[in-house]
Amino acid sequence: MNALAQKPFVYDYANAACGSLRTRVGAAEAMLRASGALWLAAERALVVADLHLEKGSAYAARGQMLPPYDTRETLRRLAAEVEAVSPAVVILLGDTFHDRKSEDRLAADDAERLRSLARDRTLIWVVGNHDADGPRALPGETADELELAGLTLRHEPRAGLQPGEVSGHLHPAAKVKATGGSVRRRCFITDAERLILPAFGAYAGGLNVMDQAFAGLFARPPLTGALGIGRVHAVGWRSLAGD
Amino acid sequence: MADSAVPAADLLPQKFADWFAQRGWSPRAHQLAMIERAQAGRDALLIAPTGGGKTLAGFLPSLIDLSERPPPNGPSSLHTLYISPLKALAVDVERNLGAPIAQMGLPITAESRTGDTGLSRRQRQRVKPPEILLTTPEQLALLCAWEGARLYFETLECVILDEIHTLHASKRGDLLALDLARIAQFAPRMRRVGLSATVDDPEVIKAWMADHSPTKAGGGGNDSIDLVRGPAGAEPVVEILLSEGQVPWAGHTAQHAMQEVYDVITRSRTALVFVNTRFQAEFAFQELWRLNEDALPIALHHGSLAAEQRRKVEAAMARGELRAVVCTSTLDLGIDWGDVDLVIQLASPKGASRMVQRIGRANHRLDEPSRALFVPANRFEMLECQAAREAIAENKLDGDPPRVGALDVLAQHVMGCACSEPFDLLALYDEVRSAGPYRDLIWEDFEQVVDFVSTGGYALKTYDKFRRIVKGPDGLWRVRNLETAQRHRLNVGAIVSPAMLAVRIAMRGGRGGRKIGEIEEGMVEMLEPGETFVFAGQVWRLAAVTNLDVLVQPAPSADPKMPSWGGSKFALSTYLAKRVRQLMVDQAHWQVLPADVREWLEAQRDRSMIPGEDEMLLETFARGHRQFIVCYPFEGRLAHTTLAMLLTRRLERMGRGPLGFVCNDYALAVWAIKPLDQVDFAELFAEDMLGDDLESWLADSFMMKRAFKGAAIIAGLIERRFPGQQQKTGRQITFSTDLIYDTLRRHQPDHLLLRCARDDAATGLVDVARLGAMLARIKGRIRHSPLEHLSPFSVPILLEIGKERSPGHAGETMILKEAEEDLIAEALQ
């Protein structure tokens, strides 16, 4: 933390009726949705990170038969978000596929679900470390990173302070302890300068935001938005615990 | 069949008769009976209390057989397999068996093999087995999953199953029964010998251990097992500590009675002080040492302590150097300690059978009575201790209901079979049904299990190319490749333990030093860095929690924080609960109780009411700004928690706005803002709550998720251990089983593992069967007592409010909301 951490910073946030948390990242207004998606209303853009499609079949190939429903479950949730906000553009913020062969393992109906996402709207695949080449046969534009609403959208957060960056990759999770129990949930994490999205994929795990991987990324003790049932809970740094 | 009709001289070879004579012993009737049964080629179950020479009775036939057979031509081969539920017991029996073998100069090798046995010894045992192998169910499952298992067990003559009563009604028991069926195929001559403590119904154990295959010579099933009973032994002398201080209203620590407990210890040779949880053990140990002016050697023994430390305590105990050991169920069975002359039970025993076991730990000589002292920690426990004492005096035990074998365990077993040799589907089906818990297994379930083992058993057939077991052109099923077999063997076993963290002394630079023991993750979560707690009998300050270690510093002078969960992990047994209800109704009986408890009962009678034996008392009253329903089903915390969840759902639907609930072993309380006395209680407690209400609540509950995780691990969907990674910890599962549960439930709700999880949750975690029996019992027998004020009975349960948080979604959302409020408060500062 730098000197900014010394003086109190009051985050600008509010709960919206739909359960989202409305806050600001840089100059942009951001709606952090309970599904883990980011809604940039001004641009009508829906952003989701780390879908990890076909993670189940990647494990099955190695002999661990996880249920083969992760792809359709993830796409079902994404379709529900698209239905809810009618975006003009859907941005997949990297690691959309779990590995480079995932696209080949995709079931026909799941591939069709992905194609239908690109109908009547722009679909952008920001590439990540698990899917560096982008899609081969599926529709949509491929990008390394993207400028939108004064924000830079990329998969992996850059080291140090990055005002205006929106990223994924780290799968942030927040843990809150209380007498008698604790809760660990996927979460958004922001310092009002940059934002890291939770993983959206059905089988994507979470990394505690107290982990070293998050060190040095924020200008001040960050605010987390923990995904609850039908709503995002704003949880301050002070209330968080390590694993 | 009890005593042998054949004279001892014809049964005992001279060498053995001399050995008995040299020790000044004579063989007991049940020992001779076991030899006779063996000579008749019969399977046998020996039921005898501790101290009756039970283990020797099991081994005598094998020792005689081995000493009389001609020396083998080739290398030694397995003759007798002994299975113990505890690693320590297998090692202990190895030592005890060594005495007669050495003293008679018998040419017999007997060796133990457990998870703690060194690698080189285990490898040697595979190539060159001892004649008598002493091991655990998990090691047996592993041996059965090795290639060459058939050859290894081919020569087996006898399998001895010790302490069956602790095993049969569990998943470990399912796995062991399946492995028994397996080795019976390999060793057609194998006899089954069961050893058990006194049980409520021996037929249940017979059914578990018997060979149920219709082709068994002479017919299988329960009739193929001869029952041999040992002598009854002297009646135990059980007393209840009628504390000079008052019996507390609530709590589980029995702190009020510690001085008296200490005084009793000073007057005894060696006392075992049993408690029900590890925290209670730490607490009692701490308290006793605070009072220990005579510096008596008092030790501590529980499952979280490092194995090495436990061994030290056991050794000191065996040498007779200790005056008392504070312990948990880790010392419920096994190791023979002649010097224990008193068993003290701190807080209530929860069941009569467990108590009989524990009392049996005192005085291993049959002709002298065992002595026990119950120390109730609160008033309801006083009733419970009294009921338990009377049950023991009448020789009434609570029994485990027979269980149906779990399908997740079967899945693990099927995979193990494929790892050892190719199998024929129909032959394996028959073999599995020869195991007691699986004798009624239907073909459809078996097929579903095999499909699960092969491809995961999904309706969406995308994994056919990734099969773990494959059917060859010869029609036999075999494991896909060596690597898959290897991974399976690393994950054998039906024990799923909670995530454990190592407790280590903090070193400079945040590193962990010497390991003191292991602690459950959930317990660590209740502590903040800087806080102090007792562990392994000392006070520590929590320095930090790293990935898998809890780093601590000694804090000898600090006053330790006592974590709030004091309750017992054992549920009050149905039988004991019934006796407590009977005791309450019978006012003439109250005179056995201490004055303050009697006055408490009288006050309850005068101000509210005492319910009849089959009635349920329900009280409504206001207190503070809250309106309470308190009812007293006496069915144990587990069943009450489930009931409370279902009641709050119903009250919610009735528009009564319930705000929270709390449960203990005897009662549950639900509260709301609006009055609750006009609720239709017959409707509220109607049996149909176990239909849709239960299913919809259960599907979302954390219990289902926990049960699913257990089933997924046992069935092999999730691997605990990987090749090259030896550390055992529940934390190292690479992804969240909750995510898998949610996805599977939406897309294939009838999947095998969801079925397993539901069955487990309904029996083990929420006790649906007991709840069903209770609802049926109280139908039309709810006694509503509308009150102005709280009643004497309600005080203990109201004192629990605020100590526990209700589990599940509601509780989790509450935690997150509180955290939000903290943030708002921070912003407003």
Overall outline of chain B: globular
Q: How many helix segments of chain A?
A: 4
* Main sheet strand line-up of chain B: 3-4-2-5-6-1-7
- How confident is the prediction overall: mean pLDDT of chain A? 91
Low-confidence stretches of chain A: none
Low-confidence stretches of chain B: 562-568, 724-733
Distance between the termini of chain A: 21 Å
Radius of gyration of chain A, in angstroms, nearest whole number: 17 Å
Task: Write a structural description.
The complex is a heterodimer of chains A (243) and B (829). Chain A has 243 residues and is α/β, with parallel strands linked by helices. Chain A is built from four helices and 17 strands. In chain A, the strands form two sheets. In chain A, strands 9, 10, 11, 12, 13, 14, 15, 16 and 17 form a nine-stranded mixed β-sheet that branches. An eight-stranded mixed β-sheet of chain A has the order 1-2-3-4-5-6-7-8, with helices on one face. The radius of gyration of chain A is 17 Å and the shape is globular. The two termini of chain A are 21 Å apart. The model of chain A has no long low-confidence stretch (mean pLDDT 91). Chain B is α/β, with parallel strands linked by helices and 829 residues long. In chain B, helix 7 packs across helix 9 (171-186), helix 11 crosses helix 12 and helix 26 (702-715) crosses helix 28 (752-765). The chains are: A alpha/beta (243), B alpha/beta (829). At the A-B interface, helix 1, helix 2, strand 12, strand 13 and strand 17 of A face helix 19, helix 27 and helix 31 of B.
